[in-house]
Amino acid sequence: MVKTQEFPEESELVIGRVREVKNFGVFVALDEYPGKEGLIPVKEVAHGWVKYIRDYVREGNIVVCKVLRVSIDRGHIDLSLKAVNDHQKRERIQEWKNEQRAEKLMEIVATGMKKDLEECYTEFGYELINKFGGLYQAFEEAAIDEETLKEAGFKGKWVKPFAKVAQDNITLPLVTIRGLLSITCPGGSGVIKIRDALIKSLATDPNGRVMIHYLGAPKYRVEVTALDYKTAEDIMEEATKVAIKEINSSGGEATFKREEI
Asked: CA-CA-CA-CA torsion for 64, 70, 76, 78, nearest 10 degrees?
């Protein structure tokens, strides 16, 4: 995905391909800034003394670097390889892959609308990037709900085809949280009361995101799957609150404890 600005910003993590390796440093062609190249000085390749620079990096390697300095007048971009930890590298690579995929999806949108790709970027693509922080994030939001685009102020004939491509091609990431319900309800009708309480608990979410598994008296595992942790936690709280209230009003006892994942 090509960035909307011409140069990267200091401290930005950039993706690049190693073009040339010298004893004094590494020249990197920046993937998201066409025509721009950065230099990784040998001291920024790795922590400690670098005896053989090719032990760390070779031509053709895809690298994630941190931008140290940018001189727009001179066209110089200084980079650091050692300033990027493994976690940052994994996240940035995944983001880069997502944006590459978003570019392909944008091509599908453009083809369906019988427009050039750049025309679509000019009409709404760049604005989506600015609004959502990236084109892939815009596709994700549209996959969740087309109305999100409208609520963000977007309108036009492109909204529906954009949302359709998103919903047909984006598999939304889900999170799952779990907890244990401990339930006791004495008396001959205790089993029925527990069943009814659990049915009401499941009914709190008509979208079927709550599941309850019997683990053996008196324990039940409650499992909630949603698009994000906050939503999952809210659903879990409501479902367990209803179950506990129903059991307590029936003369039984119920407690809930979240499981750490």
From this structure: -40
